[in-house]
Amino acid sequence: MVMLRNSPERYGIISQTLHWIIVVFVSIQFVVGSIAADLPLGMQRLILLSRHKSIGMTIFILMILRLLWRLSNQVPLLPAEMSSHEQRLARLIHWLFYILLLCIPVAGWINSSASNLTVSWFGIFNWPDLVEPDKYIATIAKGTHKILVWTLLAIISLHTMAALRHHFILKNNILIRMIPGFKGKTGKETIL
Q1: Which of 76, 107, 117, 144 would give a disulfide with 112, using CB separation of 3.0 to 4.6 Å?
Q2: CB neighbours (10 Å) of residue 134?
């Protein structure tokens, strides 16, 4: 039986699905953004940046949905053997993800608006400009966007290492509870 909502032991399928879709889109964003940044000005760069903006706005909407879902659901309990310091750090990292994954698209959107460039969603519709064209604002927004992206990369690395540590060294259910379908015969998570 598929569990839609979170339980005290694990995340439900909606949280899991949103998590992994966002992971895929963020991974694509790093690749597309890096490739576009290295291209000379031209049509190929504009096409890649247009896709980058569309995916960024998709992440923005998914993060709003994920935040609303999180606020309306319980969060699985952290293992009792985790120190209060580790638990606070884990909560902080999760909230940093929410903040960064909402702020990064907004900074990019402000940069585009201030650069007098349209933010389109896959050519289906255009997002409204957030600010009037302004080179100074564009420069600040672009720099902010880059700093936030590098911060996100650092947080992702920390999060991934912590999840692997919990799974392979501490052998608890932290990693498994976010992976769909990993339950033991009794319905409880098992360690791979």
Answers
A1: 117
A2: 15
